[in-house]
Amino acid sequence: MPKELPGFYFDAEKNRYFPSSSKPDGKARSSKPHLQEVRATNHQHTPKPLSLPKSLSPTCHRSPSVWHAIQRSRLAKHQRERIAATHQVMSAQLAATRAYQAIPVPVYPGQTLTAFAAGAYEGKVWSLAGDSYGVIHAFDPSPISDFLSVPEHTFQHSWTRAYQLDSHISSICSSDSRWVATSFSSSILIHDLPSNRTVGLSPSPHLACDIWTSNLRNRSLVLGVRQHALLMQDLESLRDARRLETQSDVFALHQEESLVYTGSRNGSIRRFDTRTRAPGLTLLSEEFTKSSNSITYLNVIKDWQLLVSTIRGTIEIFDVRYLQGSRPLLALLGHVNSYQPKLPHAITPSQSHFFAAGLDGRIRGWSLLTGEPLSCSSTSPFSIMEIPGHQTHAVDTPTSLFAVMFEELITSLEITQVRHELCLFATSGSGLHRFILGRP
C-alpha cells in the first residue's frame, strides 16, 4: 500500500506519484483532438484545448508550458526558480491576448494617424491621436472604471478635433500630468492637465528643425531633430535650451535621472550628462556606425541594460556598464525592418516584455528576461486576420494580437496601464486598435 504524501496522489497504473492539482477528473480525454474539433473551436472563439499543435494555435491560452510553469512555481525551492516560472506564466498570458477593438478616428479624407498617447489622471483616462494633416484628436476622458468596457460605438463618436499644428504630428509623449505633441516642422504643443493650460512653442531653425521624436520625463523634454538633440530642462521655456551635438538626425531618445541617450541615423549612440556641458560619450564604438545601421529605439531597462532596435531589424540588449566594444547579452529575433526609421516599439511598465511593429504589418512581442517570442512565428494562413487601412466602422471581436496583419504601416504603439490591466494601442491608416493584454 503506497504512503499518502501531502499534495501528491499515487497512480497505480504508472506506479508513480503526481501533484494533486494534476489529478484528472473523470475519464481522461484524448491528448490529440481531431482537426474538425479544432476548427469548430476556432470558429466559436472559445479557449483552445491544451494539446493543440502550435501551427494551429500559436497563442493557446492554456498551453502545456503554462501548466508546467505553474507546477514549477508551486514546487520551486529557490526564489530564482519561482521568479522564472511566474514570468513564464505572464508571457503565456500575454501571448493569449484576444480582446480586440478597432475604433475609427474622424480624420479628414486621405489622411492617416501618425501618433498616439494615453494616460490616467484623477480617475479618468485621456487619449490623444495625431494625424498626417496636423490635427490632434482628443477622446472625451472616460472614468477608469468604464474605460475597459466602453462599447466600440461610444468610443467611435467621442473624438473631437482639439488642436491644429502646421504639419503632420511626429510624436506625442507624456509624463505625470503633462503631455507634449510635436509636428515635423518644429511646432511644439504642451498641455498641463491640472490647470488645463496649453502652451505652444516654435523654436528657431537653429534650435530645432525636422522633429523626428520626443521624450518627456517630469519637466525635462528632449527632442530628436536634424543633426542634434535639443534638451529643454524647463519644459515651457526655450531660454535655456541646450543642443546635444550628434552630427546626425536623432531617431531615438531616452532619459534617466541626469542622463540623455540618443540614437542617430548614422548608427551612433551617445550618452550626455545633463549636469555638465561635456560632449556626449559615444557608446558601443562602431557597433552600428560602420554599417550605417540607424538606431530606431533606445531604452535602459533594469538600470543596467541598454535595449537597442535598429533599421536593419535587429533588437539587442547590451550591458550599460561595459558598453565599449561589448557584445549583446540577448537578441530578440523575428523583427521585420529593412528601411523604415519610424516603426514603433512599446515596453510594459514592469520592463519585462517588449513589443515592436514590423514592416510586414505584424506586431511581435518578446520576453526581456529570456528573449523568447510571445507567439510562434509559424502562424497558419487561415488564422491571420487582415485589417484594412481605413476603418469605416467599429469592430469588437476576439482576435489574437499576434495573428493580426495591418494593411497599412503601423505608425504608433502605446502601452497604458489602467488599474491592473494593460492596454496596447496601435494606429494604422485611419484606425485606432486596442488590445487588452492578457485578456482572452
TrEMBL record:
GO CC terms, sorted: Cul4-RING E3 ubiquitin ligase complex
Disordered, as annotated region: 15-58
Biased segments, Low complexity type: 47-58
Entry-linked Gene3D superfamilies: YVTN repeat-like/Quinoprotein amine dehydrogenase
Keywords for this protein: Repeat, WD repeat
InterPro entries: CUL4-DDB1_E3_ligase_receptor (IPR052254), WD40/YVTN_repeat-like_dom_sf (IPR015943), WD40_repeat_dom_sf (IPR036322)
The protein's name in its UniProt record: WD40 repeat-like protein
